[in-house]
Each structure stands twice: as C-alpha cells, then as structure tokens.
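REQUEST FORM: STRUCTURE PREDICTION
Request ID: SP-0412
Submitted by: Lab K.M.
Chain count: 1
Length (residues): 174
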Amino acid sequence: MFLVQESLVAAIERVIGSTVYNTLFIVNEDGQSYCLQGGEYACAWFVSCMLVPYNIIHSTDINVGRLVTLLEESWTNGLVEEFAVDALVEPGDVIIWGAMVFESDPRSHFHVGIALSATEAVSTSYTEHCVRKHPIQSKVNGSIRPIVQIFRPVWEKISARLWDRMSDRKQADI
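STATUS: Completed
RESULT:
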C-alpha cells in the first residue's frame, strides 16, 4: 500500500523555496499570456500540481474557486472530507483562506495551501514569488487571514485507489 499522506508531505517539504510554479503560459485572444504574474497568482497551480499525482483531484487549475470545485468533486467521490474551519488541521489538509485585497491589485483573492502540521502550511508567496512555509494563522497586510474551508484527503481510499491503478499498470507491462 502507498503511504500517500507521507509521500505528499515529503514532496511538499522538498519544493519549499522553489519558483517552478510561477510560470504558466496560456493562449488568449491577444496571443500568449503569462497568467501567473511571476508567482503572484500561483497558489492554486502549486496546490493542484501537488495533488494530481496522488489522485486526490483529477486535474490542475490556476483558480482557487475552480480548485475548490475539484476538491468538492473528490468529496462527492468519497476521496476528500470537508472539515469545519475550527477543526484541528492535519498534515496534507488543503486549506482555503479568505479573500483579501492587495495594494497591487484591487480585486479580492482567495488563497490556498497545504498543511505540513497543525500549525504550519506551505503555499506560494505573492511577495517572495516562491513556495514557502508559514504559520497557518498568518498575517497579511496586518490582519490574520481567516480560514474559510479545510479539505482532508481520505488517505486510505486514495492509497487503495492509487495502488489499484499502479497494479493494473504493472499487469499491463508484463
């Protein structure tokens, strides 16, 4: 059986400081666009890229709202549970922080990251433009950013599903 929770948390710890999730190009009506602004809007891309290989969600996204929809689909399939915002956070939990307005952008933005422990999370930093570790209850612009949702993968189901998929591949390779 795969130890998915341990593997995910170990992978996340190894990307702290990385800027690899800052870059994603899309083609829009004007041609090519650099949509993550060098890491300012990279949180959903980072989190979804970390979750997809472990089959916690089925696709990546660059938008926190659409990432929440992917997590809710996994909840419907029994792969993720949603917890109250005052629940004790566990390693691997996906945390959605409330919308805030930043000086550089008048639109409000939600934020997403993954818990490393009950007190620390990893997400992308809009100021440092990299993946960083920070307190779960951290201040942004002088105020604590509120947690609005917590999603917890159902590790046993995800592990069994991943094991079944890998076993099927091994059989096909024989």
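NOTES: The radius of gyration is 17 Å.
Reviewed by: T.R.
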